[in-house]
Amino acid sequence: MQFIRPVVAHFIFIAGLFLILVGVAFLLGNLTDVSQKHLFLSLLFGVVGAGAAFLALSLNKRTVYLFFGAFFIMVGLFLFLAALNILQFSIKKIWPLGAVFSGLALVPVSWRKYGRLHTVFMVPAAFFVVLGGVLLIFSFRIVSFNFRRFVLDWWPLLLVLTGIVLILLALSNKRVERKAREGKT
């Protein structure tokens, strides 16, 4: 019976948070020329993300929930800013933000799992953020050439970046091994 009480309390907390956020969204929708449907969608993403993060931190402690929580919170915040017309971009142009958000969502996962930023999570995080950033540059047509021309001209850069990542992984692994040996002696 004692297990049910904390679960019910957590559910009530999440339900209360959800109602507050939905109420704020509809109030904002009434005060401005904002689509309530878009506000509701953004807050739904935010609440789902907050619920997943809450589950990861308090009940289950699984890092996959924390990843999805951070990801959905970022998507919800972005959609909220777009619904309030603070950001005005079409999905056709901003789709690479999904890669950026995925990379950024790996940061709290690394911190939660290892108590610090760990290479196992930070290398893919950096890769996703850089990939999303490069794709955003082409999506917004900041550069005058297309993505295909970029790949054909700059493909050796991929070799250089892969080499840097491998060197960083090897150095990180040597440091961990050295610390483990020092701890045994």
Distance between the termini: 48 Å
Count of DSSP strands: 0
Secondary-structure element sequence?
Answer: HHHHHHH
Number of domains: 1
Write up what this structure looks like:
Helices cover 83% and strands 0% of the residues. The chain has 185 residues and is mainly alpha-helical. The chain has one domain. The chain is flat. The longest helix is centred in the last third of the chain and has 38 residues, at 147-184. The model has no long low-confidence stretch (mean pLDDT 79). The termini are far apart. Helix 3 runs antiparallel to helix 5 and helix 6 (119-139) packs antiparallel against helix 7 (147-184).
Topology:
Blueprint: H1 4-31, H2 36-59, H3 63-83, H4 91-94, H5 97-114, H6 119-139, H7 147-184
Compose a concise summary of this entry.
The model has no long low-confidence stretch (mean pLDDT 79). It is flat, with a radius of gyration of 21 Å.
Keywords:
185 residues; mainly alpha; 7 helices; 83% helix
